């Protein structure tokens, strides 16, 4: 025991994480449009491979609800055989990025972009799974999923089977919400697992007309990408690979930062954690399985259950492997509306409702970035939505960095003095020119730029052109004091 001083705590935590991970692995796989067993494969790799590697000691990896929408789109567009190629390439890219020590740079991504990304994913996930709770087929795009909900509700209202399926899904969500209000001893069984068990029992007792998970068998589900899959890959798949890489990496490393706040143990080594995620995704790609990320729900359950070392997450992978090997037929008992209900609940938790109002009050620009990113993901797609959010974040930062002050002193006689201070960039150029062009044309002007910390080329050119125009009417040439030559005056027009 001295060699493994925390074995008891880690063993108990591993069982809790296994019970939390099991329904989520299956639910994410089904929602992604792939065999349920592939979700278990990714969970197993997340435990036995990524869990064993250095990086973050208590963070747990596996298939994540946050990638469900992206995986579904990829499978729908390129087919299931191409999924392995996408995940393999994303894993290799993560390994390269970790080796180049780029992991720490993900912390520079605006938190509002990441939360907006998760909110957008959550909205699309909820909309898509609401169809699944009623046993209906969801439209392809995010915006169509949301706009089609009223029509789906009408269709469901006219079908006994759809209403039964919807009731089972709603009951699953209710159980998960109310489970946290039960005594602590009852909560030893995770709410998602309890909801699934109750759904299985209800289906068996009343022989409900609902669909259940289709079981193919673990070995039959594992289909490594062959030469044919590689031959069918085109240039268009590159964007999908980049999206998988960036989103999986960002979600994992932001999860690591959140998990670090939950415990007092060793801090995350971001570059090593990125390489651990890359190793796991590389193997998942070889096996044709789902991509993995670090998952905050499983990770927080691991910490709360008292885990002290990485042994807990490795053992949770062992329990998933034993379940997949010994009890795979059990999956066929799980009603699909119950899994859809679990993912509706997971999607709801991805949306940061509690943060939006305070963020709007304190940092309105960040709140706008969050909302625009989320809406863009729903309206366009995942990759382009995130790019829009990142671009907006860069523009906001540039705008805030370009603070500039223009002070005009007019004593009524003699030259008008104009003092510019701060950072003169093209973003504030219209404001600067409007003020300067409003000065009287028949008066000489002295423009003092000595208070500027930065003067970009666009501003310099525009100021020179303005000075030339102002002096063209027969007025004395505008005198300019350069920012790097405070005591010297230079005539720029005349």
TrEMBL record:
Keywords from the UniProt entry: Membrane, Transmembrane, Transmembrane helix
Region named Disordered: 472-494
Pfam families per record: Sulfate_transp
TM segment ranges: 12-31, 38-58, 78-100, 112-132, 152-179, 191-209, 229-248, 318-348, 368-395
Protein name (database record): SulP family inorganic anion transporter
Membrane topology: Multi-pass membrane protein
KW Isomerase (keyword) present: no
Presence of the UniProt keyword Transmembrane in the record: yes
Domain of life: Bacteria
Protein localization: Membrane
Main location: membrane
Annotated SLC26A/SulP transporter domain residues: 7-373
């Amino acid at each position: 025991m001295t060699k493994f001083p925390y074995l008891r705590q880690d063993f108990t935590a591993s069982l809790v994480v296994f019970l939390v991970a099991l329904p989520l692995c299956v639910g994410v796989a089904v929602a992604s449009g792939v065999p349920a067993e592939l979700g278990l494969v990714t969970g197993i790799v997340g435990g036995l491979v990524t869990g064993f590697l250095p990086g973050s000691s208590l963070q747990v990896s596996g298939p994540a609800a946050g990638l469900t929408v992206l995986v579904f789109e990829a499978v729908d567009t390129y087919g299931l055989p191409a999924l392995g190629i996408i995940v393999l390439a994303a894993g290799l890219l993560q390994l390269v990025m970790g080796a180049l020590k780029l992991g720490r740079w993900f912390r520079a991504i605006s938190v509002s972009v990441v939360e907006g990304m998760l909110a957008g994913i959550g909205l699309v996930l909820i909309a898509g799974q609401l169809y699944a709770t009623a046993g209906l087929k969801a439209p392809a795009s995010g915006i169509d999923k949301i706009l089609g909900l009223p029509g789906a509700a009408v269709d469901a209202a006219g079908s006994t089977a759809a209403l039964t399926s919807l009731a089972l899904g709603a009951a699953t969500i209710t159980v998960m919400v109310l489970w946290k209000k039960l005594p602590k001893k009852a909560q030893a069984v995770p709410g998602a697992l309890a909801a699934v068990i109750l759904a299985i029992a209800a289906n068996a007792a009343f022989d409900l007309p609902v669909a259940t998970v289709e079981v193919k068998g673990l070995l039959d589900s594992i289909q490594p990408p062959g030469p044919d899959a590689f031959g069918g890959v085109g240039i268009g798949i590159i964007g999908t690979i980049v999206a998988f890489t960036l989103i999986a990496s960002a979600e994992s490393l932001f999860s690591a930062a959140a998990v670090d706040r939950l415990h007092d143990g060793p801090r995350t080594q971001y570059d090593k954690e990125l390489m651990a995620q890359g190793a796991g995704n590389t193997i998942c790609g070889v096996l044709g399985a789902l991509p993995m990320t670090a998952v905050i729900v499983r990770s927080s359950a691991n910490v709360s259950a008292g885990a002290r070392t990485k042994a807990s997450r490795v053992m949770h992978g062992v329990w998933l492997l034993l379940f997949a090997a010994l009890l795979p037929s059990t999956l066929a008992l799980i009603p699909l509306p119950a899994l859809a209900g679990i993912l509706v609940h997971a999607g709801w938790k991805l949306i940061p409702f509690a943060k939006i109002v305070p963020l709007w009050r304190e940092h309105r620009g960040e709140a706008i970035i969050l909302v625009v990113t989320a809406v863009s993901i729903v309206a366009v797609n995942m990759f382009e939505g995130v790019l829009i959010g990142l671009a907006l974040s860069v523009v906001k930062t540039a705008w805030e960095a370009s603070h500039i002050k223009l002070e005009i002193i007019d004593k009524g006689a003699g030259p008008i003095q104009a003092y510019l201070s701060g950072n003169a960039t093209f973003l504030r150029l219209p404001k600067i020119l409007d003020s300067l062009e409003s000065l009287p044309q028949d008066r000489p002007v002295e423009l003092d730029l000595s208070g500027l910390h930065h003067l970009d080329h666009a501003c310099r050119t525009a100021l020179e052109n303005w000075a030339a125009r102002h002096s063209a009417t027969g007025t004395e040439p505008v005198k300019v004091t350069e920012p790097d030559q405070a005591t010297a005056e230079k005539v720029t027009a005349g």
